[in-house]
Every structure is written in C-alpha cells, then in structure tokens.
Amino acid sequence: MTLDKLVGTAAAAVADIPDGASLAVGGFGLAGIPWILIEALLEQGASDLTIVSNNCGVDGAGLGLLLEARRISRVTASYVGENKEFARQFRAGELTVELTPQGTLAERLRAGGSGIGAFFTPTGVGTLVAEGGLPWRFEPDGSVAVASPPKEVRTFHGREMVLEESIVTDYALIRAAIADKAGNCRFHAGARNFNPPVAMSGRITIVEAEQVVEVGELDPDAIHLPGIFVKRIVALTPEQASRKDIEKRTTRPRPDDEPRPDDEQGATR
Amino acid sequence: MSWTRDEMAARAAQELHAGDYVNLGIGLPTLIPAHLPEGSDIMLHAENGILGVGPFPYEDEVDPDLINAGKQTVTVVPGASYFDSATSFAMVRGGHVDVTVLGGMQVAMNGDLANWVVPGALVKGMGGAMDLVSGVERVIVLMEHVTKSGDARLVTACDLPLTGRGMVSRVITDLGVLDVAGTGFEVIELAPGVEYADLVAKTAAPVVDRR
Questions:
Q1: Is 0.90 topped by the overall pTM?
Q2: Low-confidence residues of chain A, pLDDT below 70?
Q3: Which of A59, A220, A248, B13 could form a disulfide with B35 if both were Cys (CB 3.0 to 4.6 A apart)?
Q4: CA A268 to CA A247: how far, in whole Å?
C-alpha cells in the first residue's frame, strides 16, 4: 500500500468497473463533472449502470454520452430537464429514474459516506416524495410501471420529517482543480458542488485532477476534500483540463465597450 | 394596466433588506438582482454552492466553473464563499437563509405551493425547490396572477403536485401583492390601474382587502 494513488490513464482508472455497478458522479450541470472519466467509461463498455448524480449531462456531453450508448439503466437525480434523450428513454420505459430533492440527494450521499443509514428531513413532507407515487419507470404505453413507495414520516422538534435512506455506491467519479498524489483535493469556485459528497459516498472514488502536485505541496488548511476519500487519481493533460463547457453563457457589456478577443472555450450550448 | 415582469421583479426586490441571505429561484426571480439598489448588502445564495452571487460576468471574465443554480455564468461579490452541495443545503434546510423568492404555478390560501410538475409534461425534477420551500424562513412566490389560458393560480387548494405544504407567506403577481391568510388571501397592494374587482375575479379563493 502506498499513498501514491496516481493511475497512469483514465482508461486504467475505470478498467475494473463491472456491468451493473453503481456510480456516484460529481458536478452540477456541466460545472465540475468528470468529463474524461466519463469518456473513459464509455470507451470501456460497462453497461447496466446505476448512476447517482444531480443531473444527467446534456445531449452529447457528460453522462448524456453514457445514456445515448444505453449504458445506464437507473438514475437517481434531482433535475434532468436538459436532456432530450433522457426524456425519451424515461418515457419509453427504458430507464428507471428516482427523482429526489437536491438537498436530500446531497445529504444522502454525505450520510452514506459517513456511515449513517438514513435521516429525517423536512424536505418533501406533504408531497409525492414522502407520500409516494412519483413515477420511477413507465410502461412503453406510458402508464406507470413502478412508482415510489411512501416513506415514514415522524415529528421531531415539532416538525414533520420524512425518512430518507443514505446512498453508498460501488464507485464515485469526481473532478478536482488540484489534487496531490495522496488524493487531497481542492476545487475551483462553483465546480465543488456535489464533488465532495459524491467522493464520500463511493467505495472506490476516482478523481480526475486538472493539476496534480506532490504530497506536501498543498497547505493542510486549504484542502477541501481529504485524500482518505480518494482511491485513484488521474492527472489530466492541459488539453483535458481545459475541457469544460457552459450551458447558459450569460454576460454583460463592459461600460466602456472596450473590445476584447473572442473566448473560444465554452461555446453556448 | 398591471405590472410588467420587470415591475413585478422590482416590487419583489422591495421585500429584501440589508443583511438578508436570499435565494432566488429560476425564471422570474432572476430579474430581481437588477432592481436591488447599489450596495444593498444582500447576500445571494446559489444552491450549487455559492454565497455572494454577483452580476453576470464581462465577456472576458466568463468562468465555466462559476455558474448559478440556473446554470448561467455569474461572478461573485466581495465577501463571497464557495462550499459543497451538502453544506449549501445545510444553509437552506437549517433555516440560515432568510428569504427565498420562487416562481410558482399554483399557491393555495393555506400556503401550499406547486411549482415543479408542468401539467401534461414529463416530470423533470424538483431540483432544490422542495428544500428551499421547507427550509427557508420566508417564502415569497413571484408569478403571473393567472395562467396563459386564464385559469387562476391563487386557489383554495392546489390540484398540481405540491412542492411544499403551508410554506408560502406572500405572493407577488402582475396584479398586486397578496398575503397567505389560511382561509383566503389578503390584498396588501394593487398594481397601478388594476381594479380590485378584477383581482378578486381572477383569484379562485376568498380575498380580503387589507390595503
């Protein structure tokens, strides 16, 4: 056993992920998603995957690639509105989808990684989330094949709360801005999002890092995710590290209308 | 006459006060920041992990890693912080966020909100809306008073799937400002040129004049 968790390639890092594996995947929208690991998994060919991720990519990017290749059989997510192929597979009964409130999803991952089996939360009380009946899978004719079960509701501190189970997955895929070779990670801006709780929930967590540094180079005070939650690290090439995209590019004009060079990266999607 | 979307946003901006931590939902509420006075000292929370969201970036400031919950590129203000999604929803669920302004489809007189399942459309997910509604101290809904086909959105009981139960305190529409009062809605303010009788006719629940 060594603390050097660097793996040569993304392909090697995902090589042992079997058919039927469960994976938690970091990111929010397209920010902070593990682009390169997802592409390696697409190449690797594992299928019948159970995915836990806040979103499921967009058409042609991120988890959308695995979806288009029919590698995903079940998804737990909070919002899946940006993906037509996802909607088609869900509606056609090809995909099982468990929609869960975003904060509940984050806490289910954090709790799973923390050894907690379940927790009570006020989120979803009085809705289909607690009362059951959310469609999980449709029949090809559009009728509901499987609906969510009702959940236990109890009162704590004078408030009704619903029991939500934690999530532990076989693997977790995340993206970090900087990792040291022991797996200590730092994230950049809003790309942190689901990456830490996702990393905690995975039995085998694989990080793709935009930059990898030697052990000792990161200030212990400045680490966002301790390396104990990380098993494998893939160092991205500069080209891979710059692989990012923007769903909604919104800007404002400079008051002085000073001309600027075009920014090639991050075309509006 | 009634309020335009921008005027509705401007009216909603008046609900926010210096020192408030505020989460703004997608849709209409995204128009609110433009109506906050300069240096208003309001900290905007984005549930993907930002406290202190600033204006849209200049073209050469765009950072794909820096987006809001609507996936739009943004900037941050001095004093901002970044955190993970579990911490972000600890702020929401734990009652640390003071106000949220959300879009809506239906609000009931008991404060129930429905805003996540579009009738007839495939369910896309609730995102963070259920967490916001059940965790934030003050929930304000900003929406048109009636649907495109003219149906009332302010009702005695929601028939759309709920986002949360009994959590809405105030509704701002193109016709005015109404408070949820349990057995009906109380009209606090009418938009300029709107007849009180017109607002009453377009509200499918008891209405009391509290102007």
A1: yes
A2: 1-2, 257-269
A3: B13
A4: 6
